[in-house]
Design a protein that fits this description.
By secondary structure, the protein is α+β, with helices and mostly antiparallel strands. Helices cover 20% and strands 34% of the residues.
Protein backbone atom coordinates (compact mmCIF):
# COMPACT_ATOMS: atom_id res chain seq x y z
CA UNK A 1 0.00 0.00 0.00
CA UNK A 2 1.47 3.29 -0.93
CA UNK A 3 1.32 5.96 1.73
CA UNK A 4 -1.07 7.94 -0.47
CA UNK A 5 -3.55 5.03 -0.30
CA UNK A 6 -3.23 5.08 3.46
CA UNK A 7 -5.26 8.26 3.64
CA UNK A 8 -8.13 6.97 1.50
CA UNK A 9 -11.30 5.97 3.26
CA UNK A 10 -11.95 2.23 3.27
CA UNK A 11 -15.08 2.69 1.14
CA UNK A 12 -13.25 4.80 -1.44
CA UNK A 13 -10.44 2.24 -1.61
CA UNK A 14 -12.92 -0.60 -2.14
CA UNK A 15 -14.62 1.42 -4.90
CA UNK A 16 -11.27 2.05 -6.57
CA UNK A 17 -10.40 -1.66 -6.48
CA UNK A 18 -13.78 -2.50 -8.05
CA UNK A 19 -12.82 -0.43 -11.12
CA UNK A 20 -9.69 -2.50 -11.82
CA UNK A 21 -10.20 -5.05 -14.59
CA UNK A 22 -9.51 -8.67 -13.75
CA UNK A 23 -9.24 -8.21 -9.98
CA UNK A 24 -11.12 -11.05 -8.24
CA UNK A 25 -13.39 -10.44 -5.25
CA UNK A 26 -14.61 -13.04 -2.80
CA UNK A 27 -16.30 -13.18 0.57
CA UNK A 28 -15.22 -15.06 3.68
CA UNK A 29 -17.40 -14.92 6.79
CA UNK A 30 -18.71 -11.51 5.68
CA UNK A 31 -15.27 -10.06 4.92
CA UNK A 32 -14.70 -8.80 1.38
CA UNK A 33 -11.42 -10.24 0.10
CA UNK A 34 -9.66 -8.73 -2.92
CA UNK A 35 -6.63 -10.19 -4.69
CA UNK A 36 -5.13 -7.15 -6.36
CA UNK A 37 -3.35 -7.36 -9.70
CA UNK A 38 -0.04 -6.44 -8.01
CA UNK A 39 -0.25 -9.55 -5.79
CA UNK A 40 -1.50 -7.74 -2.69
CA UNK A 41 -4.44 -9.04 -0.66
CA UNK A 42 -7.03 -6.66 0.76
CA UNK A 43 -9.50 -7.63 3.51
CA UNK A 44 -12.45 -5.31 4.22
CA UNK A 45 -14.50 -5.68 7.41
CA UNK A 46 -18.18 -6.60 7.19
CA UNK A 47 -20.73 -3.99 8.31
CA UNK A 48 -21.40 -5.80 11.63
CA UNK A 49 -17.69 -5.96 12.59
CA UNK A 50 -16.70 -3.85 15.62
CA UNK A 51 -13.85 -2.18 13.69
CA UNK A 52 -15.93 -1.35 10.61
CA UNK A 53 -15.06 0.38 8.38
CA UNK A 54 -11.53 -0.98 8.29
CA UNK A 55 -9.25 -2.66 5.79
CA UNK A 56 -6.17 -4.84 5.98
CA UNK A 57 -3.52 -4.92 3.25
CA UNK A 58 -0.98 -7.73 2.91
CA UNK A 59 1.97 -8.09 0.60
CA UNK A 60 4.81 -10.57 0.39
CA UNK A 61 8.13 -8.75 0.41
CA UNK A 62 11.76 -9.75 0.18
CA UNK A 63 14.38 -8.37 2.52
CA UNK A 64 17.98 -9.57 2.74
CA UNK A 65 17.24 -12.85 0.91
CA UNK A 66 14.25 -13.62 3.18
CA UNK A 67 10.54 -13.22 2.55
CA UNK A 68 7.98 -11.82 4.95
CA UNK A 69 4.35 -10.75 4.95
CA UNK A 70 3.83 -7.02 5.47
CA UNK A 71 0.45 -6.23 7.02
CA UNK A 72 -0.94 -2.71 7.14
CA UNK A 73 -4.29 -1.68 8.60
CA UNK A 74 -6.56 1.27 8.11
CA UNK A 75 -9.04 1.34 10.99
CA UNK A 76 -11.74 3.96 10.68
CA UNK A 77 -14.00 2.82 13.50
CA UNK A 78 -15.40 5.76 15.44
CA UNK A 79 -14.19 4.15 18.66
CA UNK A 80 -10.45 3.47 18.25
CA UNK A 81 -10.44 0.78 20.96
CA UNK A 82 -11.58 -1.83 18.41
CA UNK A 83 -8.34 -1.36 16.47
CA UNK A 84 -6.52 -3.75 18.77
CA UNK A 85 -9.19 -6.37 18.14
CA UNK A 86 -8.91 -5.73 14.42
CA UNK A 87 -5.18 -6.36 14.61
CA UNK A 88 -5.75 -9.63 16.49
CA UNK A 89 -8.35 -10.69 13.91
CA UNK A 90 -6.19 -9.97 10.88
CA UNK A 91 -2.97 -11.32 12.35
CA UNK A 92 -4.56 -14.73 12.73
CA UNK A 93 -6.28 -14.66 9.35
CA UNK A 94 -5.12 -16.91 6.58
CA UNK A 95 -7.63 -15.65 4.03
CA UNK A 96 -6.55 -14.27 0.75
Amino acid sequence: MTRSKGILLAFALLSTLRTKAGVPFSSNDGWTIVKDSDGANWSFTPAHHYAHPSVGHRTIEEYQASYFVRTELICQATNRRPASGCIRTTSGSTSG
